[in-house]
Design a protein that fits this description.
112 residues, OB fold (Dihydrolipoamide Acetyltransferase, E2P), mainly beta, 9% helix
C-alpha cells in the first residue's frame, strides 16, 4: 500500500493529460504549471510538470484511459517527498486546450 502525506495544496484540482501508460501506473503532463515544489507549498518554476499516478488513484476504469486523454487531479506528496497525482478523473476532450489558451490570453474558436 502506498503512503501519502497531505499538505495545504492537496485540495486544489489541476489539469493535464495522460502522457504515458504502463501496467499499473502512468504519467500525467500538467498544463496549469502551478504545482508546488515542496510540502511547504512553494510555487513551481512556471513549467509544466510530469506527475506519476497509480491506477488505484484513477476514479473510473483505468482500462479506458488512453494516451492524450485530458484529466483533472489533485497533487499529494508520497513518502519519498515526491509529488504524485491522485483522485484522477477523465475530462471531455478539449478542456485542457481551452484552458491553456485562456491562460495565455489567446482564445481560438473553430467551427466544426
Amino acid at each position: 500500500m502506498y503512503k501519502y502525506y497531505i499538505s495545504e495544496f492537496t485540495l486544489k484540482r489541476r489539469l493535464g493529460y495522460v502522457e504515458k501508460l504502463l501496467n499499473s501506473f502512468g504519467f500525467i503532463q500538467t498544463v496549469d504549471d502551478a504545482v508546488p515544489n515542496s510540502t511547504a507549498g512553494n510555487q513551481g518554476s512556471n513549467q509544466n510538470q510530469r506527475l506519476f499516478f497509480h491506477y488505484s488513484h484513477f476514479l473510473g476504469n483505468a482500462q479506458e484511459l488512453r494516451i492524450q486523454d485530458e484529466v483533472e487531479f489533485e497533487v499529494i506528496v508520497d513518502r519519498d517527498n515526491r509529488r504524485v497525482a491522485t483522485r484522477v478523473t477523465k475530462l471531455k476532450k478539449g478542456i485542457t486546450h481551452v484552458y491553456s489558451h485562456i491562460k495565455t490570453g489567446i482564445i481560438y474558436f473553430r467551427n466544426n
